[in-house]
Amino acid sequence: MVRLDTRNKRLLDSLKLIARNAFYQALDPFKTAYNNYRDDHELFRNLTQADGVLCESADHVEAHLLPTVNYPPALEKIVTGLLTQINGKDPKMPDGSGRRLRLRLGQKTGLQIAIAP
Predict the structure, then answer these.
(1) Is residue 2 part of a domain?
(2) Residue 13: what are its φ and ψ, rounded to 5°?
């Protein structure tokens, strides 16, 4: 008989709680602006897990987020306002370079395929 070692489980449970609290802290401004409790959690989760394109320069990095759906105009205004609010806090890249991170909302207009010779 072997006794179960729960130290790793406690660590992972702690990390899950920290991640959950960080998500809900970030969700709060979106929840207040959107004011629709049926799907605010789902829309914000979609935004946080969206694909994106990074454009780097010497002093900043722009992240163009590409959510899986195109938002209606009212929701797009709320999302861009939220991204503007985040950009207003002047987030820095975590690589120690001191470059600023700028979040932008991109649009998926279609897929273009280029054939190289």
Answers:
(1) no
(2) -65, -40
